[in-house]
Amino acid sequence: MIGRKNTGQASPLFLILLALAFFFVTYNLVIAIIRYGSVGRGVGPNSYNRLSIDPVIEMPENVKKQETKLPYHVALTATDAPYSQWQCRIMYYWYKKMKHLPDSEMGGFTRVLHSGKPDNLMDEIPTMVVDPLPDGVDRGYIVLNRPWAFVQWLEKATIEEEYILMAEPDHIFVNPLPNLSNEGYPAAFPFFYIKPDQNEKVLRKFFPEEYGPVTNIDPIGNSPVIIRKDLLEKIAPTWMNVSLKMKEDPEADKVFGWVLEMYAYAVASALHGVQHVLRKDFMLQPPWDLEIGKKFIIHYTYGCDYNLKGELTYGKIGEWRFDKRSHLRGPPPRNISLPPPGVPESVVTLVKMVNEATANIPNWDTT
Ligand SMILES: *[C@@H]1O[C@H](CO)[C@@H](O)[C@H](O)[C@H]1NC(C)=O
Ligand SMILES: *[C@@H]1O[C@H](CO)[C@@H](O)[C@H](O)[C@H]1NC(C)=O
Ligand SMILES: CC(=O)N[C@H]1CO[C@H](CO)[C@@H](O)[C@@H]1O
After folding, report:
1. From the CB of 61, is ligand 3 less than 6 Å away?
2. If you measure from the C-alpha of residue 241 to the centroid of ligand 1, how many angstroms do you get, rounded to a whole number?
3. Which pLDDT value is given to residue 55?
4. Which Pfam family, just one, is annotated for this protein (predicted)?
5. 355 located within any domain
6. Residue owning the nearest CA to atom 9 of ligand 2
7. What are 79-93's pLDDT values in tens digits?
8. pLDDT tens digits for 299-328?
9. CA 337 to ligand 2 centroid distance, Å
């Protein structure tokens, strides 16, 4: 203790200094906790320490502004089925609207069409045609074509941007999306149903012990992910191999079911020692997420069913509904009726955004 002369009475200056020092230490500690939320994860040969960024904490505005923009290329894997096409058209419409807004770091856009031949949207949406897997290899599980599509696209295309966003047709950009990734740490959305820690036995067939604990596998799929191109170039071929191996393994096929290809991406990236910053604000999923807030992508994979009182009737066809699966054979009509009062903002915004896109896309229901 310095500066203390007579017992029982500290000098006011000392108290002020002490208070200041205390403030500083606390401040730095809090900042450190916010920045590096925790905690080394994974000690395997290839694992980095995990950066966990609390999605609620925003970077201060002035810090953001000083950074140079690092645009990412939007890569949308798709087929030529009408069901995929109408979603792609809406997706591309909102990409064009968001691209030039101030906080956006969007660069170019490519629909990676894995049907092996051009379709009728080639003039509307920038597209590269790639091959599907050879007959029978996907065993009816069409999304197995995604990793193969990325492998081909990365080999063939000249991509100006250093970063890539892997997107899907049922994504709508609702706020301008910055480059959320951070050098060697791609950004990904954590899915609650991808649970590596609860599937250790099956995952070990594809993720050997020497790579560390299965918790090195992130609870994610390949989309949405923003990732540095060189990392994706390493991961994509492994992702393809792992997804085919998983599909051939009856146990993995059964346990992972419709999310097999998501597990395959998560495993492949972990095999390369790449770990993702998990961003809950990357997207929202109506009807479960009620508000848009500062989130970036609306993912409309779940049906939205409500009664006329505005109550969710999930699993039961609602008196009012919007469900992409009601439109498997062709596009939904223009000007879908808005939901009844009481339905959450996320669902109302989704319908309004679909309506705005379909009102402005020429020949909406004639192509
Ligand atoms: C993928 O599998 C094939 C066939 O087993 C093999 O030749 C190739 O080296 C593998 N590639 C990667 C990146 O694992
Ligand atoms: C959309 O439908 C509503 C009724 O649901 C109607 O009032 C409105 O005029 C329509 N708008 C367009 C642009 O057709
Ligand atoms: C807004 C944002 O997080 N931008 C990131 C884009 O990518 C660069 C390079 O990795 C990061 O430094 C930025 O923070």
Report:
1. no
2. 6
3. 44
4. HPAT
5. yes
6. 335
7. 999 999 999 999 999
8. 999 999 999 999 999 889 999 999 999 999
9. 8
45 within domain boundaries = no
Q: At what angle do helices 229-248 and 145-156 cross, to 10 degrees?
A: 150
Does 313 lie in the same domain as 168?
A: no
Q: Read off the pLDDT of each residue in 112-141 and give the average, rounded to a whole number.
A: 91
Instruction: Tally the residues of the chain.
Output: 367
Residue 38 has pLDDT above 70, yes or no: no
Residue nearest to atom 12 of ligand 2 (CA): 335
The boundaries of the domain holding residue 249 are: 67-283
In the structure, what pLDDT confidence band is assigned to residue 140 with cuts at 50, 70 and 90? confident
Which of these three, 283, 318, 334, is where a domain ends?
A: 283
Handedness of CA 325, 330, 331, 333 (dihedral sign): negative
Is 351 a member of any domain?
yes
Q: Name the domain count of the chain.
A: 2
Residues 186, 262 share a domain: yes
pLDDT of the residue at 12: 53
Which ligand is nearest to the Cα of residue 264, counting in written order? Answer: 1
- Using 50, 70 and 90 to split pLDDT, how confident is the model at 69? confident
Query: How do 225-228 and 163-167 pair as beta strands?
Result: antiparallel
Six-digit token string for 352: 């309004």
What is residue 365's predicted lDDT score, i.e. its pLDDT? 84
291 with 164, same domain?
no
For residues 178-184, give the mean pLDDT: 92
Ligand 2 pocket test, pick from 335, 355, 361 with the greatest ligand atom count within 8 Å of Cβ, gives: 335
On whether residue 58 sits in a domain, the answer given is no
pTM of the model: 0.81
My answer on whether 317 and 245 are in the same domain is no
How high is the mean pLDDT of the chain?
86
Ligand 1 centroid distance, CA of 265 (Å): 15
- Kindly list the protein residues whose Cβ atom lies closer than 6 A to any atom of ligand 2: 335, 337
Residue 133: other Cβ atoms inside 10 A: 19
- Domain limit, last residue, from 256, 283, 310: 283
Q: Which atom of ligand 3 is nearest to the CA of 185?
A: 10
The CATH number linked to 268 is 3.90.550.10
Asked if 200 and 312 sit in the same domain, the reply is no
DSSP secondary structure string, 113-162?
ETTSS--TTTTTS-EEE-PPPPTTTTTT-GGGHHHHHHHHHHHH----SS
Going by CA atoms, what residue is nearest to atom 11 of ligand 2? Answer: 335
For atom 2 of ligand 1, the residue with the nearest CA is 241
